[in-house]
Amino acid sequence: MGQVDGGGDERDIPSPGPGEVVVEVHAAGIDAGLVHLLEGRPFPVKLALPLRGDRVLGIDIAGTVHSVGESVTAWAPGDAVFGAAQGLSGHGGLAEFARARSEHLLAQPSTLDQEEAAVVPVSATAALHAVRDAAHVAAGHRVLVLGAGGGVGHFAVQIAKALGAHVTGACSPGKAAMVESLGADVVIDYTTQDPLEAGPYDAIIDTGGHRPLRHMRRALTRTGAVVLVGSEPEGAPLGGLSRSLWAALVNPFTRHRLVMLNSSIGSQALQDLAELIEAGMLRPVIHARYPLEHVSTAVQQLGRGRGTGKTVITVAQPAEEAAWARFQRR
């Protein structure tokens, strides 16, 4: 049986190396980082991560364990898992089978289905690192999430609320109801009102607001934090990196904390997210579902603020494909 990537190529099922697991993928998440990689923007991304023709992309996965490598004792074939595939090394999740490090997988939360579990790892981990670890949000803090209706933003709203913060979510009008349903105390339509004027804030989590750093600093308390998660200003040669680099230069000379987020998926972060999910304090919102054969369409629709929450790729399993073929023959 072959492995099929988003482009429709047939490949052999991968074999797990030491400490690795091969997962039969049932659903895969995609995010703005995948769009940046495919488009080679901003320019440093193209230099750091050049695409190879044989690479299978995608990091977020949910599915069942197919086989385990040497020294893997935590998992056995048939276990339901979610986590991070080795997308940057070429064995990604946009396929029927994907390789993953054993420690980058976790048992699928009982409160989520496979599609919901598949969209958690990358975006929710970024939100957790931004809100808890970079901004140091605590009970009673006033937090502004710019891009609150997006993939990372909608998780950031929920994590800030779970930490006891008063949360203001800024989003476009079509996403306001969703952001409010996630627990935001105040929802601001940024097309009609500047959310910075409602400050001061103890923390601003910017997932794509494109606002100048100096404007956000004016909306902070004396020791507040700005965490730059992502931004995609059209036409900027460095994309959102220019603001992040400036923040790194200014940070040593101010009482504010100006943080360029550097997020990576680890076992502890996944465990912390799973605990929030099981406690009913965190849930993904899925905006769109596409089958694996239409992944290129899904990527084209993703990014630049168009989607609400997350996009998931569903992967038809062999039994499902056979049943569909029998149905068509009738």
UniProtKB/TrEMBL annotation:
Signal peptide: none annotated. It comes from the Bacteria. Pfam families: ADH_N (PF08240), ADH_zinc_N_2 (PF13602). Residues 7-313 form the Enoyl reductase (ER) domain. This is NAD(P)-dependent alcohol dehydrogenase. It comes from Nesterenkonia flava.
